[in-house]
Specification:
Blueprint lengths: L1 H17 L10 H25 L3 H28 L7 H18 L3 H30 L3 H27 L2
């Protein structure tokens, strides 16, 4: 199972960092908006899956927090796009994220009980590390709009807290 999580995280890391490395192109603000929204939506769906499948109150509480926080940040992102007249642009990175997330969700759907809880929480730790790294090293520095950059920085602060919460909750699962 660890290999599977590692493989998905490797795909996500490569997707974030190398999708725009070809030709030295940075992601545009519409692409960044779509990547950020997609990453949030992935965690919303993962949280909903955990709420349905877990019986562990700490895991469920964590998942509920993910759904609430990522829904709120995604709403802020959509509101900002509307205000700026920007249409988020689908791209290879957001497509790759969605594909990897669908595979992970299918894998998790086959698990039950503590095995599900452990795999979900381990994935949340790895996912937040990857997304936080991409925000910090690629998405925020590449953003040219000050309001988008500020929203991404606000999101990064929240998501670093999610990573710590995920690490704490994962450490409690046996």
């Amino acid at each position: 199972m660890f290999r599977s999580i590692s493989a998905v995280m490797a795909v996500l890391s490569v997707s974030f960092v190398t999708a725009f490395a070809q030709g030295g192109a940075k992601p545009t603000d519409p692409q960044i908006a779509h990547i950020a929204y997609t990453a949030g939506q992935i965690d919303i769906e993962a949280g909903k899956q955990a709420i349905k499948m877990s019986k562990n109150k700490e895991v469920i509480a964590f998942a509920e927090n993910m759904v609430k926080d990522h829904t709120a940040v995604n709403k802020l992102a959509l509101d900002l796009c509307k205000k700026l007249g920007v249409t988020p642009e689908d791209n290879d990175t957001s497509k790759s994220l969605s594909k990897a997330a669908a595979a992970k969700q299918a894998e998790l759907a086959k698990l039950t009980g503590a095995a599900f809880d452990k795999a979900y929480m381990d994935n949340e730790v790895a996912y937040h590390k990857t997304v936080n790294g991409a925000l910090d090293t690629l998405l925020i520095p590449s953003s040219s709009n000050a309001e988008l950059k500020a929203l991404l920085q606000q999101g990064l602060t929240i998501f670093k807290g999610h990573q710590q919460h995920a690490e704490h909750t994962a450490s409690m699962i046996k």
